[in-house]
Amino acid sequence: MPETSMTSLTRRTFVKLGAGSAITLAGGFFHANSESAVPAGPLRIAIISDVHVHNIYGNYDFDGLPDAQTGKKLTIRTLKDSVNSTRIFNEPYFALLAALDELAKQQVKYIVLSGDYSDDGQQPTVEGIAAILTQYEQRHGMRFFATPGNHDVNRPQGDDSSERMLNADGSSTMLSSKSDVKLGDAKSLIVTAKMQALGYERGLPLMKPFGFFKRDDFLHWETPFGDSDELSKRQYLARSPDGSKQWNIVDASYLVEPEAGLWLLSIDANVYQVKNGSEKREEIKGYSTSSDTGWNALLTEKPFMLPWVKSVVQRAKAQNKKLLVFSHYPLVDFLDDTLEDERQLFGSNSFIKRTPRPEVAEQALAAGIRLHFSGHLHVNDTGVYRGSQGTLVNVAVPSLAAYPPAMKLATLHSDRVDIDTLVLRNVPQFNHLFPFYQKELDRTGEPLGDILKSHDYYDFLHHHLALLVRQRFLVKDWPEDLSPLINTLNCADLLWIAQQQEPLGAKALPDAAQRKPKAITGTEGLQDISLLTLVTDWYCLRNGSDLAWQDIPTARVKQYRALLAAYTPTATLPPDSLQYRFGLMLKILAGYINDEPATRFVVDMQGNFLTV
After folding, report:
1. pLDDT of residue 239
2. Are strands 172-176 and 188-191 parallel, antiparallel or unpaired?
3. With contact defined as beta carbons under 8 Å apart, do 115 and 148 qualify?
4. What pLDDT shows up at residue 289?
5. Residues in the chain where the model's pLDDT stays below 70
6. Residue-level pLDDT at 29
7. DSSP annotation string for 318-383
8. Interatomic CA distance for residues 98 and 92, integer angstroms
9. 3-class DSSP string for 541-604
10. In the chain, fewer beta carbons within 10 Å around the N or the C end?
């Protein structure tokens, strides 16, 4: 079964927030029950994010692969596509089942899905997810509350999608909702409406029982627009930049009281800009996608949101409710104060674009939010913003479809929230599809290392990240002249570069025999650590924070610390020198190493940040 991983912290960490926090104690609005009792004891709520479930047994008008174990047909994506994506595509189906089995074992009743529950919002996909959730509700009494992510609703009116599915001989077939699509190395094309990614008006009703609409057993339910759950009455006006076009777009936010005294606030932070020149509201491509917008755009595009949130927080406090706030996107900078360094090193990449500005946190604080759960970034992280109006903690929930696969468990007390991280290691059937992948590799000859020798699901995703570093990040994100060096140098070379007084260029390095660094205590053995290994560990720490320490040998961690201490390039070196740029890389690494605890900690509602 999945395991709870808490071995990387030797102490429990406390974050104190002050009055008016999001576990707040504040009348009525629409049909609020102001007489409802406060829960007698602590409440446990699991937060799962970015599962990215593709329904491998769904009907996509494709013959698929025979599954001897179930007798069903499999529709699975290629391994090649998975190892070039920030998420794996097929195994999350099994991971979701394993995660819910673990929560059932721990008797956790309430589960929040903080966006990207699907990949990518097609009808067979969402129907498959809804069937799984319904099954666990019926068997175990679980209750699910979802918020939409950008992969659930990529555009408000839906979107086209095209994906390569594996054939029995290891080749692939392109399944697409449109005919004008590039096949790449796919063998053939099937055009089917079942690949159409649904928008709000077709997609949300498929998830009707999971918070988006009223239920008879809810004690209270509302939206920013009132107490109606009709989608036609839950819309705001969005305008094109030139002001020539404006269309109504659904907002899926809601507040629900599933039991007396517990309020769950789901904020739909998807933001879509109407494009100049769009012809009609139903036009699929008449809107931008929401991937890189989030809260930065929400402040201006959804001006109704934070006043409503402030009202909810005030009423929660007045009525002595326990309130948990979540959305798909982060409220706080998750780059551990390395934003400007990353911008210098990488330029404006997707991580930079998705970083919320400080005014986002300030306005969230003004609305009364003190604790917020988010997804989207596939990182295990704790963002702490200390502003003029208090402290805001953003708990970034990792993805079940990427390293490290984990979920959060929040225990709500009257004065604090205990937050633990449940790591998914042993997923039954995680390797069920490996024989099909092997046929694919036999056909393509793709050099994917030992990923099919992974001994558990966690190891599989660790291998996936290593391949992702090599095949995507170094190619797309890193400067062109640094990528070849990362593939050829070792950490002793990095130390030697730091010791040079004159600026070095990527193409002017002397031969390896001449790169002999001066001995420094603690740096012995650096020549045995490839620079690619360091960069892979760099990404492990970026994605996993303190969870990643279990995957980096202690001796290597000590060597990294010694290297960091030795690497102090001066500000007089030009920004294009190797010393300066590798110095930025190591400075960012230091930020990851010294990050806020993210695995096991307590959010207390009184004052300052402290550890005990």
Report:
1. 87
2. parallel
3. yes
4. 74
5. 1-40, 284, 336, 568-571, 605-612
6. 29
7. HTT-EEEEEESS-SS--STT-HHHHHHHH-S-HHHHTSPPHHHHHHHHHTT--EEEE-SS---EEE
8. 9
9. HHHHHHHHHHHCCHHHHHHHHHHHHHCCCCCCCCCCCHHHHHHHHHHHHHHHHCCCCCCCEEEE
10. C
